[in-house]
Design goal:
The protein is mainly beta and about 160 residues long. It has a single domain, classed as Glucose Permease (Domain IIA) (Distorted Sandwich). The protein has one helix and 13 strands. Strands 1, 4, 5, 6, 7, 8, 9, 10, 11, 12 and 13 form an eleven-stranded mixed beta sheet that branches. A two-stranded antiparallel ribbon has the order 2-3.
């Protein structure tokens, strides 16, 4: 139950950055959306004096969300019409949010590379967007250490 609190907190405070945890390790996998990318701003976004490090993954044409790390689906929560999914692997929790639909049930084991669900389309940009974060207990880790998405520089 404690993870549900942190998942909801993660979604609500998606612009807050927590410093990387000392000794965190990397296990890079593919991008959670096929042909997805992360926009890198020339002037980074800041919130409360800290740079925002959440991975907002976008795609111009693909909506399928791919699971990047195998594990058990710990939680599915709906917040303001969007779905949030937490997948537990050992000490880490991989959180995918802003999903329109999820194809698995709580408690199921999901293999790496499985189609997890469908991303919600942002009507203003006509792009599919999901938020991806990684947690270890109550510490938020640097998500880009765990995924491998193309990057686009924007103004």
């Amino acid at each position: 139950m404690i993870y549900i609190h942190y998942l909801i907190l993660s979604l609500i405070t998606s612009l807050i950055t927590f410093p990387p945890v000392a000794g965190q390790t990397s296990s890079k996998c593919g991008c959670p959306i096929s042909n997805g990318y992360i926009e890198i701003r020339k002037e980074p976004l800041f919130y409360m004096g800290q740079p925002s490090r959440n991975a907002m993954i976008k795609s111009d044409k693909d909506s399928l969300v791919i699971n990047t790390h195998e594990g058990h689906l710990l939680v599915i929560a709906e917040i303001t019409g969007l779905l949030l999914v937490g997948i537990k692997k050992k000490e880490q929790l991989f959180v995918y949010s802003k999903l329109k639909k999820v194809f698995f049930q709580k408690g199921e084991f999901i293999k790496k590379g499985a189609v997890l669900g469908i991303a919600k389309k942002d009507e203003s940009t006509q792009r599919y967007i999901i938020a991806f974060s990684v947690w270890k207990d109550i510490d938020k880790l640097e998500p880009e250490l765990f995924i491998n998405c193309h990057k686009r520089v924007v103004k």
